[in-house]
Please model this.
Amino acid sequence: MIDEKKLREDLAYDATFSCVQCGYCLPACPTYVSFGKETHSPRGRINLVKLAAEGKISIHDMANPIDLCLGCRACETVCPTNVEYGKILTSAVNVLAEYREKDRSRKEKALRNIVFHKTLTNKKILGLMGKGLYVLQKTKLNKVLRKSKMMKVLPTSMQRMEEATPTVKLPEKRQAVERSQQEQPYLRIGYFPGCVMDTVFANINDLAIKLLEMGGCEVVTIQEQGCCGALQQHSGEKELAIELAKKNIEAFERYQFDYIVNAVGGCGAALVEYHLYFDEQDPWFGRAKRFAEKNKDISVLLAKLELPFQKEVNKVVTYQPSCHLTNVQQVVDDPFHLLEQVQGVTYVPMEKKDMCCGSAGIYNIVHHAESMLVLDDKMKYVKRATPEVIVTTNPGCHLQMLLGLQREGLDDEIEVRHLVEMVAEACGIE
Ligand code: SF4
Ligand code: SF4
Model:
């Protein structure tokens, strides 16, 4: 027997009334544009959530459109009535997860436990995976495995991601404790490396830290921090996401940092919304809000610093923003200000640059076919822009763009680089 009152509360029913059905969000929604169905548009999804809350359709009727939402939140940015789409989506994901939990087989439960609880939250396992990948690439064993068809045991989506993964570098040794308070750095920064980022793109974190230090900051990577919980939150693992948020809040409260900085648009979006996990009356709300306010994307910090731009980077560059950086963190101008300072760069705008590339956390693995439809649309605009370099600000977008170039046979002609790599090269560091 369904408790209708509870269902309406759980489903953010009240928030659905802000939608006036105008449809302004439709052209901004990548799944609507790529799949062409009203049910897979923001307006359609909001209506489905409302109907499910009113008991007019079943919870399972909204499952496919909600599962196939990228969570890019472009609809929020363009909505004239400020619909809280993120809140509505999260509520639907959590309700669906609760309903599905009862029907999950023991095998599915065990798999979710391994992925979300045991692997993504375990820095040692992720570190070992990074080292394993490094050794495979260094010895070229990855290519041997591909030829021997042993990779075929993996799902197609993971095989394609493995092929697109760039050369991995191991992280450098990082400062883990604050220096004497007598030294006066310009800013004290707690650095948040992120899990996937530090497994596949540790060199970008190292460059980000060097740039911050070059700008006069003290940068500390505290050992007590952990996974941001974004992938867990997007997958309906609500309790685990809250637990991870509390661990990070407690870890950083022990230090006196001016800012907590990351170079991962997706993780940053989770960190700046930690307070939304708690009711305003909950003592954790205030702590989470203070934590959230300290979190900044690397581009925001680098734009504040006086960096020694000294070297020309003679490249034709386009920018593919991370949706979570633009739509959730609302960081739009700082990446451009930084690119403008890199001498030699010729910027070419890409049409529909604000449209999600289809990466969206693990969407490109669990909904590979749909993700590729969105990616193929994105690649049409990349080809029209004809850049030599696509600049990104998030590891998920970075890998997805590499995959898109590979699908188009353009991977030898166009590079993908993080904004940090461009700035670092212009400042003469590697
Ligand atoms: S979500 Fe906003 S933009 Fe989209 S239909 Fe509703 S009111 Fe209009
Ligand atoms: S979050 Fe993105 S994919 Fe989902 S409805 Fe909004 S615009 Fe569409």
Q: What stands out?
A: The first strand starts at residue 188 and ends at 191. The chain has a mean pLDDT of 92. Strands lie at 188-191, 218-220, 259-262, 295-297, 316-319, 346-347, 389-392, 415-418. The two ends are 61 Å apart (CA to CA).
